[in-house]
Amino acid sequence: MTTLGQSWQIIPELVGWTNPELVDLYRNRPQRQVLDNLRSTYGIRPIQSLWIITTDDWNIVRNLRTIEQWCRQVAGDRLQVRVVRVQGIHDLSSLDHCRRMSEAISPFCMA
Question: What's the pTM?
Fold first, then answer.
């Protein structure tokens, strides 16, 4: 599960971290072994599904299309992408909006 703001590039970073066999984003990092050790230490295993929770902003809707295309190209059917868009919230600009977003995220944290 991840939240999505205005930048869709968080998704390749996340998938590269959890699924280096799909996209080895960190292969040229000088600290590659450290990253591999962290993945092992914390039991980070490859994901089969990705849940994205986001606002209803029109820029994000455009980014979601880009994410879906990227995931299809990189992972094919090996990564299932699900999106939860909190309707009527375009930006987390008020306490009410933050509460509604929190309510959308909370069930995933309890699972």
Answer: 0.80
